[in-house]
């Protein structure tokens, strides 16, 4: 199904994950430290620029290439994978999709090179899936023309690193004629007065990734920092999320496959009752089910990515892929931990990290319940 170029990319990222990430990521994870050295190496490999044109410093590839890379990274570690996913699909992609040529030339070169990161400011403390409930506001100062932003955002990835340069923020900028909120997207560079990055969250998983709450207190940015058309913020970000769900599905497949990898290694070595536990049919069936889940999830995200790149409707397929793959990742992580027994509860074993990382996949970029709503609505219900 993959062509020679895609297989070469897959193999190169797989080798990188095994040779560079795997030996050191456990230490970063335990220290809750952001892996700047790994990020820099991924930048030099071109991973952050995979789906972007060469004119902005990208690799000239497509979104499917990004997904292949994410799957291979997540087979070893999801913190590293989500750093790339969020940097590309949530950070740089809105600039590429909706930015002016001036905005693209200003921000994209360093983003696609992995030299800087960008955050995606949609979720708020009281507004997750209900995006219409967001309360962050941006008001135009008629004298200066600046946008004055007040509010807060929650759970924002790549928003507080030393190399973060901007966050795109959704804010209420007025009212539509029918009285509904006019929501627009505004670029807020880091270091802007009134923009405060709160301390890093203490998280259950993704412990080597960067996640913060952000607050805006009379934060002023120029009028030209409006991203895309005024009042189209939610429509823009829903498109970004549709694409991002394919990427999260790919990441989920990587975690699910990583569980298979680790279990195959373990059950061949671990002995009980005089033989490797992989000789017991009960164990064999569990590993077989894990492989089925990973394989079918992979086919789902391949299908969604194909439809997107072919210019076909893909919203439903993206939701199916994200829903199925994320739930399969959780199932595989649970089974892998169980097969490892007490060792599965020890952080030195990758499956313990996989177990902690898996649950957020059913929540981030649209919960499983939201995916079911999207699928049902697309079916006409």
From TrEMBL:
The keyword Zinc-finger does not apply. Residues 231-379 form the Acyl-CoA dehydrogenase/oxidase C-terminal domain. One of its GO terms (molecular function) is flavin adenine dinucleotide binding. The keyword Calcium does not apply. It holds the Pfam family Acyl-CoA_dh_N. Residues 3-115 form the Acyl-CoA dehydrogenase/oxidase N-terminal domain. Its cofactor is FAD. Keywords: FAD, Flavoprotein, Oxidoreductase. Residues 120-219 form the Acyl-CoA oxidase/dehydrogenase middle domain. SUPFAM superfamilies: Acyl-CoA dehydrogenase C-terminal domain-like, Acyl-CoA dehydrogenase NM domain-like. Belongs to the acyl-CoA dehydrogenase family. This is Acyl-CoA dehydrogenase family protein. It comes from Natronosporangium hydrolyticum. The lineage of its organism: Bacteria, Bacillati, Actinomycetota, Actinomycetes, Micromonosporales.
